[in-house]
Amino acid sequence: MQQYLNEIYEEIKQTHLTGKVASYIPELQHVDPSKFGMFITDVQGNQWHIGDHLDLFSIQSISKAMTAALVFSIMDEALWLRVGKEPSGSSFNSLVQLEYEKGVPRNPLINAGAIVMADLLIDLLNDPVPDYLNFVRKLANDGSIEFDLNVFESEKKTGFRNIALANFMKSFGNIHNDVDDVLDLYFKTCSIRMSCKQLADAFLLFTNHGFHKNTGEQILTVSQTKRLNALMQTCGFYDEAGDFTYKVGLPGKSGVGGGIVAILPNKYSVAVWSPVLNAKGNSEAGMKALELLTTLSGHSIF
Amino acid sequence: MQQYLNEIYEEIKQTHLTGKVASYIPELQHVDPSKFGMFITDVQGNQWHIGDHLDLFSIQSISKAMTAALVFSIMDEALWLRVGKEPSGSSFNSLVQLEYEKGVPRNPLINAGAIVMADLLIDLLNDPVPDYLNFVRKLANDGSIEFDLNVFESEKKTGFRNIALANFMKSFGNIHNDVDDVLDLYFKTCSIRMSCKQLADAFLLFTNHGFHKNTGEQILTVSQTKRLNALMQTCGFYDEAGDFTYKVGLPGKSGVGGGIVAILPNKYSVAVWSPVLNAKGNSEAGMKALELLTTLSGHSIF
Amino acid sequence: MQQYLNEIYEEIKQTHLTGKVASYIPELQHVDPSKFGMFITDVQGNQWHIGDHLDLFSIQSISKAMTAALVFSIMDEALWLRVGKEPSGSSFNSLVQLEYEKGVPRNPLINAGAIVMADLLIDLLNDPVPDYLNFVRKLANDGSIEFDLNVFESEKKTGFRNIALANFMKSFGNIHNDVDDVLDLYFKTCSIRMSCKQLADAFLLFTNHGFHKNTGEQILTVSQTKRLNALMQTCGFYDEAGDFTYKVGLPGKSGVGGGIVAILPNKYSVAVWSPVLNAKGNSEAGMKALELLTTLSGHSIF
Amino acid sequence: MQQYLNEIYEEIKQTHLTGKVASYIPELQHVDPSKFGMFITDVQGNQWHIGDHLDLFSIQSISKAMTAALVFSIMDEALWLRVGKEPSGSSFNSLVQLEYEKGVPRNPLINAGAIVMADLLIDLLNDPVPDYLNFVRKLANDGSIEFDLNVFESEKKTGFRNIALANFMKSFGNIHNDVDDVLDLYFKTCSIRMSCKQLADAFLLFTNHGFHKNTGEQILTVSQTKRLNALMQTCGFYDEAGDFTYKVGLPGKSGVGGGIVAILPNKYSVAVWSPVLNAKGNSEAGMKALELLTTLSGHSIF
User: Fold this and answer.
1) What is the pLDDT of residue C217?
2) Residue pLDDT tens, chain D, 302 long
């Protein structure tokens, strides 16, 4: 494994990235575009890493997988009354599909779907904001994880598309709580800062049939875990899910902060970070690194 | 004319209306569904009326024609940099078209377009809210016209679709001011209460080549007036513009409060009110009454 | 009138056209782009003309207004069971709207709608192809009018979009006859060659309350004529209907052969021809000429 | 395995199916709706089966996976210049997405994509119809496989949606050969009749890293096989791909003849057939049977 990481690191360092750091959230623009880190942890507890694997970055949409896990663990199949489980087939903030489907988002891993999840969490949790943070800390087994309030404020002030999505779904009756409260929680979940190490640790849940890696607690059932993995496979990469599946062949989730986490069921989870994004909004070097990893290792679910 | 009104009144009173009073704004539901009024005024100053022609009702989208007139009178052709002048071809609050056309609404007479007009008025007027009200009072030559603050508050609390539209356009850069300020002005313009008499008087502007009926002041140029009339012809009735043009053959504008105003250029303006709406959101009896008027009188622009 | 035509001619001759001759039908590319003709005829029988007003050109979509008149004169309101009467709000060969509306075209003046009309004519006429030609000859009072079989063959071989439209509607059950037969008739109607004079003469029908200009025969009822004029106003210019209405203010119909016919109800009909098209598929100089005509003359229905 | 099949058979026999046999191709309506067969073959050559596993049925869209394999084996990555590899996100014969994406289908496993594949095969094969049949016979190691000319003729006469798709793509330049020739080949590939046994045998190619199960010939590279499996995972079930992935967790392909084939990479391929379809166009009992198989066996790629 370490040898693969070394090879990947060499190749990425020589790659000229053509994309750009995310600019739609002003606060995210200040990140050093040359950053690159990668961390792998397997179910036996082995760990391998390279580069800036302990640097904290904004996880953004990667939080959607953890949000879906938390809601699914509480509601089980009742979740699907409020959101679909099909790929969206169009870019991640499209209102068109939402209009045709009467305010029901295609899946919980796109923005509209994650906003519905936030609406559900307000009903399901006692104290949604700290409870959510504690869930993430538990998954990663790391109590130091925090929200980034600058990113939160920045997104709240400029996230007009997400405000539009939430109000649009509210007009269809698919948001039950106050729109501002729902968006507050949604933007908070996106603003969490984590390192590659923390993300790989947290996603062991999905690798490990729903059991917590350290405590052995069963957070998701085997069946729920399998199903969330399937969702990440078909819906985890915006409009590039097909291409990611095609090239990498692992379930995963990306974020516009430049992070990607992927898992090989029953084997390992891997997190990679590089803030330069391709035209589809996924980390350019991160996609490349994961493609190299599965090519070099021969690992793939297919 | 009076004989036509009498005949129309008889026929409407015997018609069983199958639609419903607008319910999407809670405050509008309290209107008596059996109300019906009609008022005609010509350029010579003659007036004819029937039924509840002095009752005040919520003008709602009828305000859009006056808003467009006010903006057009100040900006002239520069207006069309921010909004189109083509029919929308889909229902009045569709986000689909807005997404394909990058946040530029199809015309100023649909909700999205009128929200852009409100954004412009904030830049163009010294004190937008009272200045707008004064413009409407001037057109109708009646200083008693007021906003209905209950309707305003009701719409502000429940107008999720319009909040979505405004934020969506803001995300494309086509709203320049604070979204809340823009929506405040927009909801205020819709909340104005007027009678059939006041509306018919106000719309004499469009009948009368842009000249004020009493003072003779030229508010719109002849060319601007002709162009706004053309816009009302093709875009004044949501998704039913074609059918209205087909059956009535006069330019006009309707609102979900149940009012419709139409004009025969150079001759007269006519306002009708009945709060029961058809499936397209236009007054059921109002559409019928105008169709009868043009059939009985033989008046039509075609 | 003649003075207006002279002024228009001067101005058009000095205008640098930026568009292109229609290329999607190979046979239409061979037209001389510098051609320009205009012909006006009024209900009293007066005539004025300028330029190449006797040159024959391919009328293309202008035929749709005559097709609609023929079907409407036979079926009356039953026509609207098969086609709508609302503006299309998107470009003239869009399949999107057709898919959402289950194979029912928005109006008879777009391609899909005219194909449905051709399907109806096969059921309504004894010998559709010659019967249709005779109807056009009667309207223009000119037995020399012919199909252009080169254009017909050219369009039949390359009209993939129209073949797609017809088969798509057939899949929804809105085409009753054999698709090839329907398209044959449709392409034939588009291939007719006429001059500005012949077109202006034929469209006197719409100016003249449905009465034939020479024989006095009532071909359409007054009401039917009024309604077709209203349709031409809202739907006659593809995606540019709003702009044409806005600038010209007359009902009319254009074709990609570069012809446009418009009418001032009860007064006159006017045909103009210049083969260079703007981005929307309407004659660039033709649009300009009609805008000048209504500006110079002050004529407009608004 | 046999025990799982027995249990599935018992459960299916007691299930009341609520769907209907495919009716859009008249010839397919004559199938006995109570038929049910299932066949599993693993890479060691073991075989298990139940019910009507030797009955021949119309494979319909299942052919698309074999067509994609044949084209991919010849063109390799150049294939993706003509078709995408993303899920379609809307129903299997939508023209909307095709219009927005300028005639390039989302993936080779939807109708539009498979029509483009047929266009490519005309260029790539010496004698497309027999060459294609021979490829399928080789995959299944069974020279008795034939086209069903009644189904072919039936589909050719009534496949208006597919004729529309092909002409629409031709209008964008994404079909190079004569539309009739392309559709002839496309309808032929869909009309092939195979049994569950033959299909399971043929799909061992995808289970077995691209190697032919009997001859050992490498038909696809390991990488190509992995990539086609990934495509089947995200795009193999029309608008139900997400739900299938979610419930079954195996790559596969279904057809409106009621057949479904799925594979567990490196282990086995399984074919199931029951002609009653659910609302999405997939075999109702077939979906259920595969869900039971992965639940009982614990097999899934996730």
Assistant:
1) 96
2) 999 999 999 999 999 999 999 887 777 888 999 999 999 999 999 999 999 999 999 999 999 999 999 999 999 999 999 999 888 766 545 777 788 788 999 899 999 999 999 999 999 999 999 999 999 999 999 999 999 999 999 999 999 999 999 999 999 999 999 999 999 999 999 999 999 999 999 999 999 999 998 999 999 999 999 999 999 998 888 778 788 888 899 999 999 999 999 999 999 999 999 999 998 889 999 999 999 999 999 888 98
Q: Are A141 and A201 in contact (CB under 8 A)?
A: yes
Distance, CA of B234 to CA of C286 (rounded, Å): 21
CA distance A220 to A211: 7
Q: What is the CATH number of the domain that holds C293?
A: 3.40.710.10
Query: Which chains pack against C, by 3+ Cβ pairs within 8 A?
Result: B, D
Our count of domains for chain B comes to 1
* Interface test with chain B among C224, C228, C245, C264, by most B beta carbons within 10 Å: C245
Residue D251 sits at the chain A interface (C-beta within 8 Å): yes
Q: At what angle do helices C160-171 and D160-171 cross, to 10 degrees?
A: 160
Residue C206's domain comprises 2-297
Of D106, D107, D246, the CB nearest to A231: D246
Residue in B with minimal Cα distance to C266: B302
**CA–CA dist B105, B10 (Å, integer):** 41
Structure tokens at C63: 């035929």
10-residue mean pLDDT profile of chain C (302 residues): values are: 96 91 81 96 96 97 98 96 83 69 91 97 98 98 97 93 95 97 98 98 97 94 92 84 86 95 96 94 95 92 88
Using DSSP, state whether B9 is helix, strand or coil: helix
Sheet hosting strand B252-254, strand order edge to edge: B47-51, B37-42, B268-273, B259-264, B252-254
Q: D178: distance to nearest CA of chain C, Å?
A: 11
- D302 domain residue, yes or no: no
* Domain presence at residue A106: yes
Q: Choose among C99, C166, C170: nearest Cβ to D95.
A: C99
Residue in D92, D232, D301 to test binding to A, most A beta-carbons within 10 Å: D301
Residue B173 lies in a domain: yes
**Residues of D in Cβ contact (< 8 Å) with C163:** 163-164, 167, 179
Contacts of C165 in chain D (CB under 8 A): 164
Beta strands in chain C (DSSP E): 20-21, 37-42, 47-51, 57-58, 146-147, 192-194, 252-254, 259-264, 268-273, 276-277
Q: Assess if residue C180 is contained within a domain.
A: yes
Report yes or no: B226 at the C interface, CB cutoff 8 Å.
yes
Q: Are B91 and B144 in contact (CB under 8 A)?
A: no
C-alpha distances out from residue A182 to A149, B228, D99, Å: 16, 42, 36
Q: Where are the beta strands (DSSP E) in D65-136?
A: none
